[in-house]
Specification:
This protein is α/β, with parallel strands linked by helices and 195 residues long. 40% of the residues lie in helices and 25% in strands. The protein contains eight helices and seven strands, in the order αααβαβαβαβαβαββ. Helix 5 links the parallel strand 2 and strand 3. Helix 7 packs parallel to helix 8.
């Protein structure tokens, strides 16, 4: 949506290190990122950094009223937009590092899937470790974590460091084919079974 793109760009200009992109993710990328969501049951799905809701909409479409969808957004303007746009989603304005306490407040032992729109390659090493630790600790033994990276970021040291960190924290990490229909092109990490 053009209005979302303008909002996203404006928020990026205010805080590029926390927004990390110039425009919302495409439907193609959202579909690839949300692939691990279970087709049955009542899954607990946590979404980190939902932005304007590209992944949120796809998660809601796949859940179709099942389970619990917790979306954690640091940016107050975007959190308000999400709460208005998706009234059935449990939207929290907060820090993803507080994931354990946010789940505990809801009497949720662990998440089945964590979907991330966070700009991992923009984060320093300590923040990557802190956030990925919070993600891995929040998942059940068969839990899945899914996120993406832009194609142009592959050679950057923070992106390489994040990829190595994924391999340390999860037993299995699968990288998707490039999603060319996204600006910029991206690929998806599907990580399973936290260590």
């Amino acid at each position: 949506m053009p209005r979302d793109t303008a909002l996203f760009l404006g928020q990026f200009m205010r805080s590029p290190a926390t927004i990390g992109a110039l425009a919302p993710s495409s439907q193609r990328l959202a579909s690839a990122v949300c692939a691990p969501l279970p087709e049955r049951g009542e899954p607990i799905v946590v979404e980190l950094g939902p932005g304007t809701g590209s992944f949120t909409a796809e998660i809601q479409r796949r859940l179709d009223g099942r389970g619990h969808h917790l979306a954690i957004e640091l940016n107050s303007r975007l959190a308000g937009l999400l709460a208005d746009r998706f009234p059935t989603v449990d939207v929290v304005e907060g820090d993803a590092a507080a994931l354990a306490s946010l789940l505990s407040e809801r009497r949720i032992r662990h998440a089945d899937v964590v979907v991330s729109g966070l700009p991992w390659a923009a984060f320093p090493d300590e923040l990557q470790q802190c956030l990925l630790g919070a993600v891995a600790d929040s998942l059940g033994p068969a839990g899945a974590f899914t996120t993406f990276s832009y194609l142009h970021a592959i050679p950057l040291p923070p992106a390489r460091r994040f990829r190595a960190l994924l391999a340390e924290r999860f037993e299995e990490v699968v990288v998707s084919r490039t999603v060319w229909r996204n600006a910029p092109p991206a690929f998806v990490f599907h990580a399973r079974r936290p260590r």
